[in-house]
Amino acid sequence: MELSPVSRITRSMEPILEISGLTKTYAGGFTALQGVDLTINKGEIFALLGPNGAGKTTLIGAVCGLVRPSSGTMRVFGEDITRNWRSLRARIGLVPQELATDMFETVLHTVNYSRGLFGLAPDPARIEEILRALSLWDKRKAQIRALSGGMKRRVLIAKALAHEPDLLFLDEPTAGVDVELRRDMWAQIAKLRDRGTTIILTTHYIEEAEEMADRVGIIQAGSIRMVEETRSLMKRLGRTEAHIGLVTPLACIPEVLAGYNLSLAQGGHELLYRGGDGYGGGKAEVAQLTKDLVANGIDYTSIDIRESSLEDIFVDLLEGAAA
Question: What CDD domains would the database entry show (predicted)?
């Protein structure tokens, strides 16, 4: 899926969420979080990536008051959330994975009710703005049970935005949503960030994190393995891969090409190149490789070049950690 480019606003280095030494061990002995340290800056989109069971939802639940941590501290907007939970929670929005709303209520009533839960006065104009932005205004009188899965997920986002949070958690917000609805949702999320809302998301669509997130964090087995700016990560660990179709198959890599990171595929009918230093760094080397092929009488019929994606890097990092 191709996403529209997201404008990059200047991100403040003021921390909006500071997590230190956070652990969670359940009664049965399973440890879901193991000493998590994480700082989120005001106005950024932060993508938390990890396999199923890594601790993503538990971490979000801890900040949102749905999970009681075993130990550690959490500061939100500069205050200890355990000491002033009620007022701080009113500034936090959550879009959960699971639908958790009365299916027999109308869309409008449900979203208005969510605003009232946080003690805010009714604001019909604001609610209309949210519903229109999420293409829900025409469905405002419909019962939620009558909506499609994608529209129900939009209702969850509308509920989370009803009280105008400064910090918004999105736990797999586009899971089960078709491509068109997903694109619309991300357009709205981009607008929220441009208004100054800080957004923390988990997603299985890693290409979305690559396109949208200022920074990414990888969590595995309850521990944060790394946190880095998305572009920096792509530049540091990105690689170039080229598949070169040959006119005549080769039995082995010629000595004149020994300086390249090459292997044979498709029974010798294809040269496979992997290399480069950083994202896009291998393109110049591939260009030189093609010149050397021609100079040495090795004809080729096709060449397919691709850059490694954030998903490639993510998988490599997890496999490396498991090795």
Answer: ABC_DR_subfamily_A
Q: What is the pTM of this model?
A: 0.76
Report the alpha-carbon distance of residue 38 to residue 222 in Å, rounded: 12
Take residue 49 and report the two structure tokens written for it.
């990536």
Please, which pLDDT band fits residue 142 given cuts at 50, 70 and 90? Answer: very high
Task: Examine the pLDDT at 18 and tell me if it is beyond 70.
Answer: yes
154 and 185 Cβ atoms separated by less than 8 Å: yes
Residues 242-255 as b or e (16 or more Cβ within 10 Å = b): bebebeeebeeeee
3-state helix/strand/coil string of 185-238: HHHHHHHHHHCCCEEEEECCCHHHHHHHCCEEEEEECCEEEEEEEHHHHHHHHC
Report, at the CATH architecture level, how domain 239-307 is classified: 2-Layer Sandwich (3.30)
DSSP 106: B
Output the pLDDT for position 83.
Answer: 86
Return the CATH number of 15-235, one of 3.40.50.300, 3.40.50.970, 3.40.570.10, 3.40.50.720.
3.40.50.300
> pLDDT-derived band of residue 11, with 50, 70 and 90 as boundaries?
low
Residue with more model confidence, 25 or 178? 25
Please compute the mean of the pLDDT values over residues 141-154 and round it to a whole number: 89
Hey, where are the domains in the chain?
A: 15-235, 239-307
First CA to last CA across the chain, in angstroms? 32
Q: Give the SS3 label for residue 272.
A: strand
pLDDT tier at 9, thresholds 50, 70, 90: very low
Q: Give the separation between CA 323 and CA 288, rounded to whole angstroms.
A: 34
Instruction: List the beta bridge partners of residue 46.
Output: 200, 215
